[in-house]
Structure formats: structure tokens, C-alpha cells
Design brief:
Length: about 150
């Protein structure tokens, strides 16, 4: 599974990926003809390329010390029209760090799928939202899914 974060973790900490790209593009766009400025721009561009090269060597891994509420990977098994979902989080959150979590295995017959709803919960302005899909079944059960970042334990 590939998770993309607006704050990509690079070799020098979390910095926005668009910031690195902007610095590189500015260095190329502002390439001057004067020798002293050209040397300064060359130094900036070299630094940018070194940081980008270090960032590109990072490898994704599921073998980390994840927070308990994101510690299990979800997976699905399909057998005909029956879908079995493993490690579905059922949590009771009292705060961001105080919660009870349990992991469920759920089975659903896709022939009983009745509704599919798309919801977007906006936060920090209109450009950032948590998007979720909710599946409703004829037996009254619902299943909501979304993609989220897996946070490491501190």
C-alpha cells in the first residue's frame, strides 16, 4: 500500500515535497549569467540534488513501532460474492492519545449491498479533507472506509 503525505519524511525531517520542488525550479529559473551568481546558484542546485537523492533512497516499511490505533494492516479475502475484511479498527476515542481499540474480522455478502455514500470532512480550510466511503447493506450493517496516515509511536 502506498501512502502519500503532504509532509513527506525526508532525510532531514518532515518538509513539504512541494517546497523541495519549488527550490529546485527556482534555482533553474533564476540561473544568472554572472559568474558569482552562477556559482551561488550551482551550490544551491547541488544542495537540492543531494537532498533529493537522499530522500529518494528512503524505503517504505511496515516494520515500525506504530501507534496502537493504526498498528494492524487491513486485508481482504474475496470468495465469490462474500468479502471478508480482516483487522478492521473498532475504536472508542476519548482524545487523540486516549482510546480503546479492538480489531474485528467482518464478512459481507456483496449481493446485499444497498447504498454507497461518499463523505468529505473538511478541516484546516477548504483544500484539506478526510474522504470516506460508507457501504450500507440490506441487513442494516454499515462499513466505512478511508485512507489515512499510519503514525509511529513517539
Amino acid at each position: 500500500m502506498l501512502l502519500v503525505s503532504p509532509l513527506a519524511e525526508g532525510p532531514f525531517g518532515a518538509l513539504p515535497g512541494w517546497l523541495w520542488l519549488a527550490v529546485g525550479l527556482l534555482a533553474l529559473a533564476a540561473w544568472p549569467r554572472r559568474p558569482l551568481r552562477r556559482q551561488a546558484m550551482l551550490a544551491l542546485l547541488t544542495g537540492f540534488i543531494l537532498i533529493l537523492a537522499g530522500w529518494a533512497t528512503l524505503q517504505p516499511s511496515n516494520q515500525r513501532d506504530w501507534q496502537a490505533d493504526v498498528g494492524e494492516l487491513r486485508w481482504v479475502m474475496v470468495n465469490g460474492g462474500i468479502v471478508t475484511l480482516y483487522n478492521i479498527r473498532d475504536a472508542n476515542y476519548r482524545s487523540e492519545t486516549d482510546y480503546d481499540v479492538r480489531w474485528l474480522t467482518l464478512g459481507h455478502d456483496l449481493r446485499g449491498l444497498d447504498t454507497v455514500d461518499l463523505a468529505a470532512v473538511y478541516w484546516a480550510g477548504p483544500a484539506i479533507a478526510h474522504v470516506m466511503l460508507s457501504f450500507g447493506f440490506t441487513d442494516g450493517q454499515h462499513l466505512a472506509i478511508s485512507i489515512e496516515a499510519r503514525k509511529e509511536s513517539r
